[in-house]
Structures are given as structure tokens and as C-alpha cells.
């Protein structure tokens, strides 16, 4: 963490490699529709049938053409060392180092909860005159087996 503004953290993120898919889906449906596609890649549906560990977070954001869902690959995996996906919908991407404003909340995801916390995040940044370009990113850190009250969710906004 580089700085705190109320419940908002400004953070520096290292580069990471992600497996991602863009789906014509709503925010409510994107995660569940993307999961079997991306999990298939991790569990060996790739050239070499190599298995990769599940890692966190799983991110989701609106993009032209639908919703982008990413599985962040384990630390140490590079674009060169990651196995090639067999499913053409799965793409590998290097996310560059970045600075992001984040807000954390617990519980199950809902559009109302997302909108509430996004509003809090945007209001805190506006009050501190911190500019954020681009769309919000939802980051989920726990499996569906985690009790709802223990789930960690975040909303990220890129900083200029």
C-alpha cells in the first residue's frame, strides 16, 4: 500500500500474467460462465496438458464486446512459460505494473453491493482530487466454498 484515503487504499501492483476470456454476458453471469472455460485451462486443457494452481484474484470488468474475466496465474508464470491454451477463447496477457485505488468489502457479490462500494470509492477519490481513468475492476479472492461472510472482494480503479 502506498497511501490510504479513508477506507480506500492506493496500491502499487507488480506485473502479472493472466488467462482471460471475453464473454457476451452480464455482470451477474460472467463469472459463472467464464469459470469452466478458464478452470479448464488451469486443469490441463492446454498444450502439454500442464496443470496450474488456482490463484487469486479472479477479476471481472466491462470491455467493448462484453465482460472480461481473468484468472491471475501463479507467481513466477511468464507468457513464455505458460502453456498454450487449447480453447481459442482463452487468451494469455501480461498485465503491466500499475497503480490502483482499491476498496475492500466482504460477502457475496451483488450489483447493489458493487454499486454502493464503487460509489464510496469514487467519492473518496474525488474528495482527495485523485483521478481515475477507465472502468472499475471487480476482484474476487475466495472460492465459492468460502462462507459468504468470509469472502474478500475488491473494486479496483486505475490511477493516472
CATH domain class of the largest domain = Alpha Beta
The CATH superfamily of the largest domain is identified as: Regulatory factor, effector binding domain
Number of strands: 9
Overall geometry: globular
Task: Describe the fold and architecture.
There is one protein chain. This protein has 160 residues and is α+β, with helices and mostly antiparallel strands. The chain folds into two domains: 3-11 and 98-158, no CATH class; 14-95, Multidrug-efflux Transporter 1 Regulator Bmrr, Chain A (Alpha-Beta Barrel). Helix content is 21%, strand content 34%. The chain contains two helices and nine strands. A nine-stranded antiparallel β-sheet has the order 1-2-7-9-8-4-5-3-6, covered by helices on one side. A hairpin with a 2-residue loop joins strand 4 and strand 5. The chain starts with a strand and ends with a strand. The relative contact order is 0.23. The mean pLDDT is 94.
Descriptors for this entry?
Multidrug-efflux Transporter 1 Regulator Bmrr, Chain A; 9 strands; alpha+beta; 9-stranded antiparallel β-sheet; 2 helices; 160 residues; globular; 2 domains
